[in-house]
Amino acid sequence: MPFMDTQYDYIANTYHSNKSRIFYKIVDHSLKKMLGNLSNLNVLDLACGEGHITRQLKSYGAKNVIGVDISKEMIKLAEKQEKAKPLGIKYICSSVQELGRLDTFDIITGVYLLHYARKKEELKKICTTISENLKLGGCFIGVNTNGIKSRLYDKLTNYDFEYVLPKNIRTGQMFKTVIRYCQKPIELQMYYYSQKTYNSILRESGFRKVDWIDFDIPPELDDNKEVSHWKRFIKLSAEGLLHCRK
Ligand SMILES: C[S@@+](CC[C@H](N)C(=O)[O-])C[C@H]1O[C@@H](n2cnc3c(N)ncnc32)[C@H](O)[C@@H]1O
Questions:
Q1: Less CB within 10 Å around the terminal CB: N or C of the chain?
Q2: Structural domain of residue 38, as residue ranges?
Q3: What digits encode the pLDDT tens for the residues 106-149?
Q4: What phi and psi, each to the nearest 5 degrees, are found at residue 213?
Q5: Looking at residues 224-245, what average pLDDT do you find?
C-alpha cells in the first residue's frame, strides 16, 4: 500500500514563511559547517519540504541537486521557487521508502526525516534507501530528534515548539510536536526511537560510522538576547545533527 503522510500539505505555506526564525538560523549554520564545500558533488535532499535546505546545497557548490518530499504541496512550493529563480534543482514527489535507487550520490541530507517513520520497519526501509543511493564512503547528514533524555522533553517549554511525549515512551510510539509560532498552534505527529535504535538500524542499513553532534550557535548571534534560551535547548539535547558514513 502506498505511504500517505499528508500532514505537511496543510501547513506548507506556514512552515515556509517561518524559516527566518532564530532556531532555523542555528540549524542552517550547523548544517553548513558540517557539509563544508560541496563543489562538484551530487547531492540528494530527502524530506526537502519547500526546498529551504535544497537551495542552500546549491549555494555551497553542489553540482547536481535533487529534492524529494512526500507532500505535493511542499513540492509545489519548491517548484514555484525554482521557476522564479532557476538553480537547476530537480524535485520529486515521493516517500523516501518508495523512492528506490535514483543514482549514486556523494552526500544525502535528511533534515527532519527519520522521526516521521511510523514503525521500526519503515525506519529500516528509509535508512536502506538512503544507503542504496550513496556511494561507498559517502555520507548521510541529518537533523533529527535524537532520542535521548526524552524524560527532559517536557522541560523544553517556552520554545517555538513543544514536544508532547507519553510517559515511558516506547520505540515506534507516536508523540506530538506543537508548533507555537503560527497564528494557531499546529500539531505534528512524530515517532520516538531511542538513539540506540537509530544507531543500530543505521548500522544494519550499511553505515559504518554513526555520530550525533550538537548544534552550533552562529557567531553573529552571540549578542542576540534569545541565544541563551536556545543554548539551553541545545544542552537538553532534544535534537541534533546526525553524521553517518557508508
Ligand atoms: C519539518 S519538514 C522539513 C523540510 C526541510 N527538510 C526543511 O528543513 O526545511 C519535514 C518534511 O518531511 C517530509 N516527510 C515526512 N516523512 C517523509 C517521508 N517518509 N518521505 C519523504 N518526505 C517525508 C514532510 O512532508 C515535510 O515536508
A1: N
A2: 7-147+193-245
A3: 999 999 999 999 999 999 999 999 999 999 999 999 999 988 65
A4: -130, 140
A5: 84
Using CB distances shorter than 6 Å, the residues near ligand 1 are 5, 8, 47-49, 52-53, 69-71, 74, 95-97, 111-113, 116
pLDDT surpassing 50 at residue 3: no
Which atom of ligand 1 is found nearest the CA of 188?
A: 1
Q: In angstroms, rounded to a whole number, what is the distance separating the alpha carbons of residues 5 and 9?
A: 9
The pTM assigned to this predicted structure is: 0.92
Answer yes or no: is 185 within a domain: no
Tell me whether residue 35 is in a domain. Answer: yes
Residue 43 has which C-alpha cell?
Answer: 547531492
CA distance 39 to 28: 18
> Is 126 within a domain?
yes
Question: In total, how many domains does the chain have?
Answer: 1
Residues 163, 156: contact at Cβ < 8 Å? yes
